[in-house]
Here is the input.
Amino acid sequence: MKAVKKIIGIQILFILLLFVPKAHAQAETQDLNSLFLTANQNYQNGRYQEAAAAYATILKSRENGYLYFNLGNCYLKMTRIGQAILNYRRAQKFIPRFADLSMNLEYAQQETKDKIESKGYSQLLQTVFFWYYRLNKRELIISFLVINFLFFLLASIKIYTQTDAVNWLLIVVGIIYILSAGSTGAKLYQDKFTQSGVVTEDEVEVRSGNNLQSVVLFKLHAGTELTVQEVDTSWLKITLPDGKIGWAQKKGIGII
Amino acid sequence: MMLLSKFKATILLCILLFPLTARAEDVSMRLKVDKTKLQLGDTLQLQLTVKGTQSAPHPKIPKTNAFNLQYLGQSSQYQIINGASSSSVVFTYTVFPLKEGTFEIGPVNVIHKGRKITANPVTIQVLPANAKVQKPQEIILRTLVSTTTPYYNQQILFTLQFARRADVTNARLEMPSFDDFWVEDLEEQREANRVIDGHTYLVTEVRKALFPNKTGTIIIDPAAIQCEVFLPENRRQSRDPFSSFFRGFRRRTKRKHLQSQPIKLQVKPLPEKGKPANFYPLVGNIELTSGLSKRKLEAGDSTTLTITVSGNANIRDAGLVEPEEIPEFKIYDDKPQVEIIPQESGVLGKKIFKKALVPLNAGSPKIPVYEIPYFNPETKRYEIAQTSPLALTVRASAEKEKLHALGSSSGAVPKKAIKMLGKDILSVYTHPNALENEQFSSAESTTYSLLFILSPGIFIGLLSSRKRSQLYQKNIAVRRRKLALKSAHQKIQKISATGDTNEAYAQTAKIIKEYLGDKLTLPGGALTPQEIETKLHAAGVSRETIDQLNDLMRECEFCQFASSQGQKDCSQIIQQSKELLTKLEKHF
Here is the structure.
């Protein structure tokens, strides 16, 4: 039992490490703070282009969901729907539960021209696996690590004491562990291997091949969301939620 | 009995003949020519079909000085399909034009059973004898639009015609892309015989209603078709009767690729003059109708107000102009329904708005007038379609009367749904935590990875330790074997700490014996050198190691009581015994 106590101690120490605030260079933070304040001021005064440039500069050194949200707002005010949706989607990776973001994204999506019928089960998936959509990558990983710790802690206790309570608790935590592991794995896989994109130009031609001589299959308009299947030098092979496939030039599509 | 069967037969005959007699009165007549354009000196064939009777008198085609007619004969037909009968007589003539120009043949009138039946005239054009009459083509692809100068969002009827006089197979049609239009399909496709440039073709039509969504010049790209056309038969090729039998299986085809002409449209913007405020570009002829599900009800009950916007316009996004506040009612809007009805001249759009009205008080409240502004391209003006005013009779509800009788009143302010007054996005996020870097650092990734493997790692360690201790508890021999070296080392370490050489000689032999006893699962102290040698030999220990062991044991026994001169240093003995133990461990 002494050994178990020691082990728990080490693990708790590691978990505390997760919440240690990240250290930043003081001077850099000062500069970024003033740039952030200027950007906010520009936005309030209707100078959206300047505000967007400032937010984009901050994003080069600090990746943050709220900055993407603010940048998306600037683009939406400039009626650049594609760029707005692209930045809102990027923001969603970090702050999926931010209500303002959902509202503004919905607003931007209403302004898009293309109507694409999706397969229709995404809403159901979002309801059943709500935690997958409501938590960002970091939150999912930390939750998984906590559940991982709890599961192996219970499993370690079970080695020494075989009570019904421990057994039942282990089954419950085990089920949560499997779900959490699956969700975290899926999120990491999606992050690493799946690329989604948004049409950022007013109109993008989608062709049957990755050259300008290929037949134009259909045209997409700013704000339409798609999945990137393959990347060529200056072309992307894309898929739409309704199953349409084709090649589009890279310059007209922003990768989320 | 005989009488009864005769009666039945009469009834049956009457039933069978009834449709025949009923339709006998439905008589019509039609004139048809095989071409409408010909050269002087050429002839055309004229057919006059009388449908619905076989007893029509021979019709007389009015003669003029423009042509001569030669009667070729008549044929009649009678059919019963699914109980419905039809009969017709066809009179065929050859027409010889006498001079150039455009003439009408007909109308033709016949009196049948006291009723006058008329066939509409046909127009033919007679060209000079040497004029070039466009030769009939095998296939034609052309596109037509109802107007080339529409207003923004005005309905245009686009028709694609694929006309053919030859048999065609494997046709693949490519429609133009209507990028600058909202498109409504009329029907899949339809087929009919039509006259094009004076020749009759079998025409397949694809029609679409287009609504231009930008102003200025719009080009509708050409449509294209690829198909295989069956070549005409060369009948003189063979007189073999079997060749005609197999002809159908090996008819030769020719690949053809056709393209229609592009169509240039000049889309006019809607005039600014007289444009109503918040005008949705509804262009066409619009009607607004309204109706109520019930006109008499109690306060608190609901009635459904149905408002239908219909017209030849793009009504999908059309919205009603809501009247000002209506304090007499609570109004609940339902999701509007859209119907698109294909018609000959295009599509008729219908958008049905349904509102549940709940009158709050007894009385005769009036339902206000709903409006929808639209632009009428015929009058070239903005017009407003309105619903007609409707009235309701509302009785006081039984529930409310009861409350009045009790003299109680809640006094609560009536609640209203929040009305959205504007549309905008929510503002930027200004809290400084927007500057926190949310990107994964390598240190963070390493910590997560370590934490991930730490828990199961520790668990596996604990589990194996637990299993080992359980095994040792169950099997002493195994425990002795596994822990022999560790125990021997511990004991040697103790002697080393004392630094006493005599003690080292005394204990080393004992420790080695105990070690061997543990390894061989025997009482260590009782082992004789002979037994040790035999057992080690059996365990596969090399001769050299056995000799080393014997030497060390002998040295220990001899030196522990000898004078200090012949003795080695304590650390040497310990080193020697450690090396020996390591060698022996390799064999167990």
